[in-house]
Protein: histidine kinase
Amino acid sequence: MKSLQGKIVLSFTLLVGTILAGLGIIISQLFPVYVEESVRSNAVEKVEEISQIVEQSNVEINDDQKAEITDVLSNNRTGSDFIDPRKQLWKTILIVFLGAFVIAILFTYRLTKRYAQPIDNVTEVAIELAKGNYRARAYEDDSSTTAQLSTSINVLARNLQELFKVREMEKERLKTLIENMGSALMMIDRDGQISIVNKTFVDQFEFSARDVQDKLFKSVGLPEELKKFIDYVFLMESSSRKQMTIVIQQEIHHMEVYGAPVIGEHGRWLGVVIVMHDISDLVRLEQIRKDFVANVSHELRTPITSIKGFSETLLDGAMKDEKTLHSFLEIIHKESNRLQMLIQDLLELSKIEQHGFSVEFAKTSLREVMKRAAEMTSPRLDEKDMTFISNLNRDVVVDGDMNRLIQVVMNLLTNAITYSPENTSVYLSLHESETHGIIIIRDEGIGMDKKEIPRIFERFYRIDRARSRNSGGTGLGLAIVKHLIEAHHGRIFVESEQGKGTQFKILIPKKQTS
Structure:
């Protein structure tokens, strides 16, 4: 695009050139007439002079002769007497015209440079600002008549740059907030197309952003109950909240869904925003709490009822029968021990679950841990004619609390013995990876169904309640095991098959990170 200065110079050049060309044409048309008249006038004057000279010489010249002399003198306008002055005159006129043209162009250029060039510069800056280049600045010259315009456009550019920085900062903050909020977020425009989703939403529904962006919410595979809720928010055009159970990839999720309309300026309807809070853990914890209250009440009531019933029977006269007295006292003692174990495990679990609980880390031999745990559970193993088959050829040293790790292994060995038939074996092996020590305990017991594995670490959860209670367990052992392993920053994995046995794999870090 041509600049304003170039346009003005070009326009003025054409204007001056046209004027000078017009003057040249006019002069070229009038000059021959003027020359002819001048020649004729000079010829007449010379005829008069010739006539006077002839008369003084006493020679008679009539009017016809005078006219003939005049014609001869007039027709001599192409003679050498007139050609040279005409050429000289044309050269002079051409030089004057060219000089005037050049002077006019130079004057125009300097004038436009002073007034039009700053405007061109401001125009270029304005174009750059329109393109989004807010760093562009106009040249400021205090002596220029357009200095105020340049200053104003620079102030505008600085303000736009500041606004752009603020907008970008707010945009990044909003993006960070949306992407890192713990709840799934989805914004749907007025046409029903998904315009914004965050990472939590994509991860929760196992979509990709490309699969849902700018797609109709009804066509991306959302659960039917959620789609009905979105339709309801669109229909009512008001905020709404609802708890729903959604199945995602065959897993049940409890969701609290909040929907609200998005209203722009002047009440313009822009769409709706949907926020989904996954409250599955809260629902699960609430269920665990209810189960815990019910289970602990039942577990405490059973031994207390037994103790109370047998003691009342003894007080009613059964104590006089020595055989009955001895039998009842053994039952009371057994139930008292069971009650004591239950209370001790409850206190132990409460202590472990307290905030700030930690274990005392030290260099610990896992082989020594497993040997001592096996020794302490050997009496129960012998009662069922079972055997330990161990693979403890190598030792693995980890950062851990020996007493707590012995407690973990003892609980697992006790469970393996308890839920295995007689004349079977319990397998113990010790392995290591680059970062962890690995303990594997496998039995040949009753096993469990795969759907029950996620719940075995819950307090008081029992697969076979009657058999578990008869075994003397409190139902808190595996809950304690899990908490102690987590205190060591380790992990525990369970594999089981009904009728074939169960395997526990424990990973303890070799070095604890501070």
Remarks:
- Confidence is low (pLDDT under 50) at residues 465-470.
- The longest strand covers residues 251-263.
